[in-house]
Amino acid sequence: MESAKRKSMPTEALRPNKQHRENGSAFSIEQVACVHDVSYPEGYVITKKPDSSDTKPAKEFPFALDPFQSEAIKCLNNGDSVMVSAHTSAGKTVVALYAVAMSLRNMQRVIYTSPIKALSNQKFREFKEEFSDVGLMTGDVTIDPNASCLVMTTEIWRSMQYKGSEITREVAWIIFDEVHYMRDRERGVVWEESIVMAPKNSRFVFLSATVPNAKEFADWVAKVHQQPCHIVYTDYRPTPLQHYIFPAGGDGLYLTVDEKGKFREESFQKALNALVPKGEGEKKRENGKWQKDLIVGKLGEETDIFKLVKMIIQRQYDPVILFSFSKRECEFLAMQMAKMDLNNDDEKVNIETIFWSAMDMLSDDDKKLPQVSNMLPLLKRGIGVHHSGLLPILKEVIEILFQEGLIKCLFATETFSIGLNMPAKTVVFTNVRKFDGDKFRWISSGEYIQMSGRAGRRGIDERGVCILMVDEKLEPSTAKMMLKGNADSLNSAFHLTYNMLLNQLRSEDGDPENLLRNSFYQFQTDRAIPDLEKQAKALEEERDSMIIEEEDSLKNYYELIKQYKSLKKDIRDIVFSPKYCLPYLQSGRLVCVQCTGTDDNSPSFLIEEPIAWGVVVNFDRVKPAGEDDAGKKPADANYTVDVLMRCLVSREGIAKKKIAIVPLKEPGEPLVVSVPISQIVNLSSARLYMSKDLLPLEVRENTLKQVSEFLSRKPTGLPLDPEGDMKIQSSSYKKAVRRIEALEHLFEKHEIAKSTLIEQRLRVLHTKYELTAKVKSIKKAMRSSTVLAFKDELKARKRVLRRLGYITSDDVVELKGKVACEISSADELTLTELMFNGVLKDIKVEEMVSLLSCFVWQEKLQDAAKPREELDLLFTQLQDAARMVGKLQLECKVKIDVENFVSSFRPDIMEAVYAWAKGSKFYEIMEITQVFEGSLIRAIRRLEEVLQQLIQAAKSIGETELEAKFEEAVSKIKRDIVFAASLYL
Amino acid sequence: MEETRGIQLSLNQTQKIRLRKAINHLQSLYSKINSNASVTVADTIPVNFEDSILKGHGTSERDGEVVATLCGVVERVNKLIYVRALRARYKPEIGDIVVGRVVEVAQKCWKLEINFSQDAVLMLSSMNLPDGIQRRRTAIDELNMRRFFEENDLICAEVRNFQHDGSLQLQARSQKYGKLERGQLLRVPPYLVKRQKQHFRHLEHFGVDLILGCNGFIWVGEHVEARDTIAEDRVDNTEQQNSKSNRSAHDMPIEMRRNICQIANAIRVLSNLGFSINLEVILEAINLSIKLNLGIDEMLGSEFHVLVAEREVERRSSLTKK
């Protein structure tokens, strides 16, 4: 073990007193402020409720409540819904606990929903210890479904509402934990459905991470349910955070944001300067491979991550959670800790006991799984790994060990940042970028807030530490955005699904349009309308207030200039196309270039544009990115010309310089700049003798002096004649030239051109035009949001259902529709079609299970082996069905990429699942595929869910053989480690 | 007699001929659709065994052949084959709206006769409490069950699901389900009520609620405002309800009674003729009776039956022409 001596922090001495935050709170600024607000539905009459403060609270806590907690509890006591928005560590659970206690006291049912099964399990345990009358319903397990307090996943709650379970008539309080999950692209819609359909007269408790638009959400709930909804918002952290940067290759931490939220610029710069340039790593990334320095670290040398962990342990900043963004990376980093041992012998014994007592429920074969046996040595040294690829049971053991303080250093993925209170003293981000499906982007401030929420243990640490490992230069503004930015706002991710439509159509009261109208999505678009209107009006007013004299003739002139410019550009494009001008771009040629003004965003309205002369040094081809341009003709490629000319250099920050080309006579430095060919205005027939070495400043000055001398003799600069010298015969060139001559003639006649201040006036006119265009686009946006969102899609999707015979033309759900109603864990249309086509009937149970695995497996494997022939044949049948469904959707104008849709069914785990259904041991099937153990287990569990739904479906069409077959399939796959019970139960 | 479908009417000769003509016409309109798909018990259903098939309700396999176990019409959905029985008892499906009569108040539930092979069960917990409060049901609620519904009360509910033991569970999703008062119940063969988007209909013109139960029980009664209003006027609502139930049927205005009877008779006529019953057809029949200025009692006469049949021929042929 490393010697553990506290070293003082490099820069900041800590402040013991708790921080005060001023939030303009509506009331009590005691210790920590929170904002309390209420949304009332329209036309709601506020009645004074009887003061409930003297009645006994339903639950008393052994500690003093924070103001936001007591505020929220006050609302609960008054029987009002409340939305609590606070950081993960702030203690929102207290509110949930109180709501449960209160409901139980009042003999009411209460439901707690969370987005993740594991979280539900943990909450179940927590509630069960506190209150006895608690049940659990997830897809995997059902315990005591008749209890007064039910913990479930949101999906289960949604389907209960569709089925009209009696619980919906008895539930008084519904607690939605982590409600910010609503912005999840795939699953978020489930929250909206659940909230919209929730029984009338029930009350809600929403617990969410900090979201800036909590008020908007509450307004929506108030509107949909016609009841007041309170908002209690706080961004208080019980333990303040310090943010450090650890530059790659460096060896120290740099305090970037202190616990008062101050950004320390100079320290940030120091950190970046300490960053060791990577060279090698840079190239690798360009090749598309994301390899990091800290991984590549040379043999024998300590890697960055090792150095960092060592430092953390030395400074007693442990326990520490190190977040990375992929499972593989997580494991890889943990492997680099091989030399480190953070636990003493007592702790090792403890870990071993806990570990084996948990593994006891596994069969002997499963205990020998490599993942299990490899994990223990690591854990014993106080190092853990936590990601979704682990066996669920291992994941839970690690969570328990971490909570017990036996794991000092945990490598985790983002999933660890949600859910149960598992704080550490320190949180490390091993990467500043995250892959989001198509590119590596910066971590968003919302993600940063969520993950850094794990830092700082309440009551133990005086402050939490966040360390950001940086391996590339980043702008202070980017860092500020990431470290100090706002939480992501809660936006609707509503979308339609067929299952939703069918369920809505099936019930007498249900109406998909009603659901759409009440959705948060619609609410948000509706809400934007007054804003848009205001904007449009303001812009219109601004436009109308611009009064321009002689507007008509000015307009005329404006149009002429526009034409003239576009013609000029045409000519330039012809003359200075590489084909014609390349031969003249020798070094020493005088060239006339458009000035890049300092304020280039407003176009100029002079006929004569500002130009500057310079000397050509060289020209260069620009390689189009990623293309092999060997076969391209030189004429087609893009070129830049290096020109020596006078430039104005303004410095902004350190990294960026802004260079503006200025005319010769103006002050500036003589510099060589590269200019795209399109910027060339003229080429002179004259050439200068150029010195070969342009590095010394005097040489450049002298050259430019020569240019000025030449120009003072020949003010026109003796341009090349396009037709004579450059031999341009193109007819379009001639035409353009003639038209320009005509236009020039018109200009002379135009009276207004002679008026003073013509440029300013044109500028005003231009802004006016721009305003008009803006107003137009805003009005367009308004038009599209006044109609019901998704209306067209709804129509298209109903068309699909009709064409497939799921509903009749009067929207009555038919037999097939009833089957699809039951299927919510897989693609309902494809699976229903497959079933009605008899595919599932003919094949063996194992084959059927294997085929169904394609519906639940979503990860993409790069080099998965093709399944054997029989299975592949089945998979082809599945693809045919999917393609049919996909094409039909396209025909019905549902926006869908058919091939994408077809390839969303993955055959990767068919073999493994086939073997599992045949009765193989888990270690045997793990040898068949390369997937993570945890992922496979999750897929098989989901498969069981689908089978349960299919049993219901088969029952409703009266096909008893199929029903029996599904039952058999369930019994075949539901065994051993895959369905091992959670340790939390 | 096939043509008249066993209608017990005293028709004179011309009426007979007119009715037969109308019904033949109607049959000819649909003859193409209803080809020889009808089977009786033990009839072999022709299938192509090369394709795999799924055998649904009303079918069985015997000696390598698919045979019908019901009299009815063979329906095919992709590879699924099932027999839809005509003129059978009601066969419930999840989501159906039914009207039923309480036959027993049992432990925590009511048993309802809904024209199914067994009584349906409406759990105490499957209905909303009249005051709209969301809470667990207590022993006191159980004792007070007769306050909600007692034997012979009529109740409207939705089919929720089949339990594992095969019993049928009902539910009352919202306040618009529940006890039916001040009106009359009609029983028609269940196959005449097709599943529709809406089974609750409010005929504003007559001030009458019409509930077309999928089980062939049709309710025609005085319109009741959906009690599902917001929580604030909960208090007044319960008072209203109390006073309403106290009010006996005697103080129903005669006009309302006439309306109810008129609609009920129109349905009776349609049911006698064996026409499927939906709002459109009912309104058509009522309008016809108003146009002819017929008394309510005259609506059940043979002449009106024939007229309705002829009117239906007109309507359907105009539909098919379109």
From TrEMBL, chain A:
Span of domain Helicase C-terminal: 304-506
Reaction catalyzed: ATP + H2O = ADP + phosphate + H(+)
Top-level taxonomic group: Eukaryota
Gene Ontology BP term (one): maturation of 5.8S rRNA
A GO MF label: RNA binding
UniProt GO cellular component terms: nucleoplasm
Known EC number: 3.6.4.13
Annotated localization: Nucleus
Residue ranges of domain Helicase ATP-binding in the record: 73-229
UniProt KW keywords: ATP-binding, Helicase, Hydrolase, Nucleotide-binding, Nucleus
Keyword Flavoprotein carried by entry: no
Residues covered by region (Disordered): 1-25
PROSITE patterns: HELICASE_ATP_BIND_1, HELICASE_CTER
Main location: nucleus
Family: Belongs to the DExH box helicase family. SKI2 subfamily.
PANTHER family linked to this entry: ATP-DEPENDENT RNA AND DNA HELICASE, DEXH-BOX ATP-DEPENDENT RNA HELICASE DEXH9
Name under which the protein is recorded: RNA helicase
Originating organism: Erythroxylum novogranatense
TrEMBL record, chain B:
UniProt-listed Pfam families: KH_6, S1_RRP4
GO biological process: CUT catabolic process; exonucleolytic trimming to generate mature 3'-end of 5.8S rRNA from tricistronic rRNA transcript (SSU-rRNA, 5.8S rRNA, LSU-rRNA); nuclear polyadenylation-dependent rRNA catabolic process; poly(A)-dependent snoRNA 3'-end processing; TRAMP-dependent tRNA surveillance pathway; U4 snRNA 3'-end processing
Alphabetized InterPro entries for the sequence: Exosome_RNA_bind1/RRP40/RRP4, KH_dom_type_1, KH_dom_type_1_sf, NA-bd_OB-fold, S1_domain, S1_RRP4
GO CC aspect terms: cytoplasmic exosome (RNase complex); nuclear exosome (RNase complex)
GO molecular function: RNA binding
This protein's record includes keyword rRNA processing: yes
Occurrences of domain S1 motif (ranges): 93-173
Major subcellular location class: nucleus
Membrane-spanning parts: none
Location(s), subcellular: Nucleus
Keyword Nucleus: yes
Cross-referenced SUPFAM superfamilies: Eukaryotic type KH-domain (KH-domain type I), Nucleic acid-binding proteins, Ribosomal L27 protein-like
Keyword vocabulary terms for this entry: Exosome, Nucleus, RNA-binding, rRNA processing
Protein family per UniProt: Belongs to the RRP4 family.
Name of this protein: S1 motif domain-containing protein
